[in-house]
Q: What sequence folds into this?
């Protein structure tokens, strides 16, 4: 018992954290430091390739624009579905909710494949278009296909988050607003929006970050619309341009990390879901 | 009263819910169907078959086992590293602990592609390591560790645990006894919840895995991407069906188990 007391608690905590710290230092910190220093070997300007080379700049702009569009659309649709599901009781609701959140466990490649099934050369829409107008419509490999795939990827998370948040919403506030003659739109704007603001911020940041880094979906669709993860992948595997791939990864990492950081500064905690 | 008022019609919400549900569920049904028909372009008329499933199993069956093994190893690894670490972070509110926690969650914020590149640049030369499943495992563990640590750490922070630990200490229990006998059982539901999250993330992980894999170390998502790129649509669909049929029951089973444990041990 003496010994247990003599053992300094601070050392004990350090010993507890040590295995994870060593593992993390060896397999993330160290490699990432290498990644960070690699572009310097090709000259300092390599760090700014994403800003100076119009092709990379375009790819980055594409990715940011697509991610913003997907995030906003997902938030609106996810909130609508989440609130509806939280407020209405019907048979099969639990089943529906679990089906809607099922894709959370799908890898991105499956979602890319779904979009090919819908809008690819042999896809459902092409078949329907063929029989209706005699024209095979394909959208899977363009901007629309990518947008729908990212949307599919993002919606389950938004629906799950909003359904949980809407359950906790104060119904009395809404009833008071209604009884004072507020229209449905006003209730949505003045009651729902402030109440759901923290959820929206946290969820939006996560959705944006996952969209920025989503590689599997874009990879499967082999899209004509180039996004930054695909650019990085091409630089690395096709051209063996490691320094440039590293530089672009840093740029991508900074953008996503910054968004999550800002969201957290405003009180959202995206990682602890 | 609440029901009556809120059950009132909400045409916009209802329409959105229906449309979104169709958008989410139709592709799943479509892909399940596509994996079971003889010829995708003729559809159900061509008749149902298990041929494609058989072919997928022959070519890619191994990826299923490897994915499950990898996810299990990832859970074991993150529990061994993460639970003591979560305790340390929960009990220490020093600046260093705070910075360490921030660092630990970075791999979640930084895109998987960047982490994978970093790992390849640092360890790509160690051929034996590079070509083994351990290389993928390490990537998955770095990515999933923060989920385990955060979940368990917040459980360790419960006030009553501090009192319990203090009581055990005053009764003469040493740290080992307290940790294994009191603390770990008390946060067991959180460990289970964290494990479930880690398992799910690892099984579906593609961004990292695609970069880290070699032809001999393929996981289920890697095989999927491979089959989508090079095979017929029926094969791709059948493979997706394999994913549904193998992974989802496992996840559901684990979820059920987690709920059971939550009920028994939860407070």
A:
């Amino acid at each position: 018992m003496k010994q247990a007391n003599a053992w300094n608690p601070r050392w004990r905590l350090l010993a507890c954290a040590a295995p994870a710290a060593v593992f993390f230092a060896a397999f993330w910190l160290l490699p990432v430091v290498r990644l960070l220093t690699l572009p310097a070997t090709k000259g300092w300007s390599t760090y700014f390739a994403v800003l100076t080379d119009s092709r990379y700049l375009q790819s980055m702009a594409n990715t940011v624009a697509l991610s913003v569009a997907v995030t906003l659309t997902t938030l609106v649709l996810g909130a609508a579905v989440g609130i509806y599901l939280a407020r209405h009781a019907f048979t099969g609701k639990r089943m529906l909710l679990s089906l809607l959140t099922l894709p959370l466990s799908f890898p991105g490649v499956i979602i890319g494949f779904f979009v090919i099934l819908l809008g690819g050369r042999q896809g459902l829409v092409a078949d329907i278009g063929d029989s209706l107008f005699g024209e095979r419509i394909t959208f899977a490999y363009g901007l629309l296909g990518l947008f729908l795939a990212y949307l599919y990827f993002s919606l389950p998370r938004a629906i799950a988050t909003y359904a949980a948040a809407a359950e906790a919403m104060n119904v009395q506030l809404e009833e008071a607003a209604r009884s004072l003659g507020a229209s449905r739109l006003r209730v949505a704007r003045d009651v729902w929006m402030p109440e759901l603001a923290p959820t929206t911020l946290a969820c939006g940041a996560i959705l944006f970050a996952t969209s920025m880094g989503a590689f599997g979906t874009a990879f499967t669709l082999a899209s004509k619309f180039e996004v930054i993860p695909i650019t990085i992948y091409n630089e690395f595997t096709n051209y063996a341009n490691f320094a440039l791939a590293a530089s672009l990864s840093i740029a991508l990492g900074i953008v996503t990390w910054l968004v999550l950081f800002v969201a957290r500064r405003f009180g959202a905690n995206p990682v602890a879901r | 009263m609440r029901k009556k008022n809120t059950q009132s019609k909400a045409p916009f919400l209802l329409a959105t819910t229906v449309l979104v549900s169709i958008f989410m569920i139709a592709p799943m049904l479509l892909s399940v169907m596509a994996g079971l028909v003889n010829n995708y372009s003729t559809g159900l008329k061509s008749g149902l078959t298990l041929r494609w499933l058989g072919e997928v199993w022959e070519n890619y069956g191994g990826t299923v086992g490897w994915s499950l093994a990898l996810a299990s190893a990832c859970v074991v690894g993150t529990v061994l590293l993460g639970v003591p670490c979560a305790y340390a972070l929960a009990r220490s509110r020093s600046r260093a602990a705070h910075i360490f926690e921030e660092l630990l969650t970075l791999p979640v914020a930084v895109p998987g592609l960047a982490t994978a590149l970093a790992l390849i640049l640092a360890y790509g030369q160690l051929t034996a390591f590079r070509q083994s499943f351990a290389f993928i495992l390490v990537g998955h563990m770095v990515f999933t560790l923060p989920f385990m640590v955060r979940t368990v750490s917040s459980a360790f922070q419960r006030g009553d645990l501090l009192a319990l630990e203090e009581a055990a200490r005053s009764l003469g229990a040493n740290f080992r006894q307290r940790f294994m006998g009191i603390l770990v059982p008390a946060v067991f539901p959180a460990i289970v919840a964290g494990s479930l999250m880690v398992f799910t993330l690892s099984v579906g992980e593609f961004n990292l895995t695609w970069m880290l894999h070699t032809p001999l170390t393929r996981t289920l998502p890697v095989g999927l991407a491979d089959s989508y790129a090079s095979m017929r649509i029926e094969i791709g669909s059948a493979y997706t069906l394999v994913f549904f049929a193998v992974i989802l029951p496992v996840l559901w089973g684990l979820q059920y188990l987690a709920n059971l444990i939550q009920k028994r041990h939860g407070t």
